[in-house]
Design a protein that fits this description.
Beta Polymerase, domain 2, 7-stranded mixed β-sheet, elongated, about 400 residues, two-stranded antiparallel sheet
Length: about 400
């Protein structure tokens, strides 16, 4: 039995980056031997075990053969006869197909170290094209390592393009796709993820609503970058730069989908794009079964982001409606995330990245004013039921009028 550290742990050590998760592969062992040593089995499809003390995953060396569509369409074979090189060749990228023993002696049959130095994301073998999830994985790695100068090798991009046109991407489950998308959006440069998907033709398959934004112009006075797709990438870039959470990044990606529906004859104006985009945002949310908080914020930002930008001009009644829509009294954090998404939208414009966004503090102040209304005095005056609701609303409106007058 020989045990090797494999994949990301080896890659990141060689890159000088922190190693978080460690995967191990065991060569020359049987399931019975692993169980006898106290390892606990997990996973139904192939033999993976948890170390009796550390809890880390140890997988028996295995080969795989394609026998169906999608991510799960594989037959795995694990036995003591499977070599380390045979196990490594089934991996996606050369930089993920390296192993090292407990003395840090490197096994690198597919030149991963060479590709690390060349800053290339290159597939290990033609079998790469058997797993459609790898299109998303490579785009995610491109986003993670863009700051180090990594790019996708042309021959790998070609295979990704073939996969995008094969119909295999449609076989991915929403859960698997979302897991990759969510991880990619939380990388240092999530806009690179979208760029790579677009470059290989996968974006128009997975998110045609986002793909449709490229080439759609906006008024240059408000958007010096003009192109709506370019603007969307810039907003996502700002969200990452400002360390926004996943909910905000997802909303930033989808906020302008309605502009893809504007007839060409109306360009570069996009009247009512906020309302038109809601059905598209809903469709993308449902396609990937995004978590509820991501879905809700994306819809609210899509509908109200221009309200955010015009906050200083809004009538107190409109401002109150906005606050009610977000339920700022019980869910203040969601309104904070809306403000953040609006600010990222404003900053995601060429040459305006550093411009201040006074609307943010104004909206926070409005929420504080509305929340300051106490219910108890109204109860003491005898208000109850629907009348109490109207009385509270009236007091909040007064507070917002006073706030607007002072601002």
């Amino acid at each position: 039995m020989q045990i090797y550290k494999v994949g990301g742990a080896v890659r990141d050590r060689l890159l000088g980056k922190p190693v978080t998760d460690i995967d191990w592969v065991v060569v020359g062992a049987t399931t019975e031997e692993m169980l006898a040593k106290g390892y606990r089995p997990v996973g139904a499809d192939f033999p993976v075990f948890l170390h009796p003390k550390s809890g880390e995953e140890y997988a028996l060396a295995r080969t795989e053969r394609k026998n169906g569509r999608g991510y799960g369409g594989f037959i795995f074979h694990a036995s003591p006869d499977v070599t380390l090189e045979e196990d490594l060749i089934r991996r996606d990228l050369t930089i993920n197909a390296m192993a090292e023993d407990d003395q840090q002696n490197l096994t690198d049959p597919y030149h991963g170290q060479q590709d690390l130095e060349a800053r290339l994301l290159r597939h290990v073998s033609p079998a790469f094209a058997e797993d459609p999830l790898r299109v998303l994985r490579v785009a995610r790695f491109a986003a993670r390592y863009a700051e180090l100068g990594f790019t996708v090798a042309p021959e790998t991009l070609k295979l990704m393009h073939q996969l995008s046109e094969s119909g295999e991407l449609e076989a991915l489950t929403p859960e698997r796709s979302w897991k990759e998308i969510a991880r990619a959006l939380m990388e240092e440069q999530p806009q690179v993820f979208i760029e790579v998907l677009r470059e290989c033709g996968a974006l128009k398959v997975l998110m045609p609503e986002v793909d449709a934004l490229f080439g759609v112009p906006q008024p240059e006075a408000h958007h010096p970058e003009i192109d709506t797709g370019v603007h969307t990438l810039s907003v996502l870039e700002q969200a990452a730069r400002h360390k926004q959470p996943l909910t905000v990044r997802w909303a930033c990606l989808l906020h302008d989908l309605g502009k893809g529906l504007t007839p060409e004859k109306e360009w570069p104006r996009h009247i009512a794009h906020e309302h038109k985009g809601l059905k598209l945002i809903k469709a993308v949310n449902e396609r990937f079964k995004a978590p509820k908080d991501c879905q809700e914020l994306a819809l609210l930002v899509g509908k109200y982001h221009t309200h955010g930008h015009r906050a200083l001009e809004l009538k107190p009644s409109t401002l109150l409606e906005l606050l009610q829509s977000f339920d700022v009294y019980r869910r203040p954090q969601r309104f904070e995330e809306f403000i953040a998404a609006c600010e990222m939208d404003a900053r995601g414009r060429k040459g305006l990245e550093q411009r201040s966004y006074p609307q943010a503090d104004y909206l926070r102040g409005a929420a504080t004013a509305a929340r300051s209304i106490a219910v108890q005095p109204l109860l003491e005056k005898g208000f109850k039921g629907p009348e109490l609701g109207e009385a509270i609303k009236g007091e909040r409106l007064k507070a917002l009028k006073a706030y607007k007058d002072q601002a």
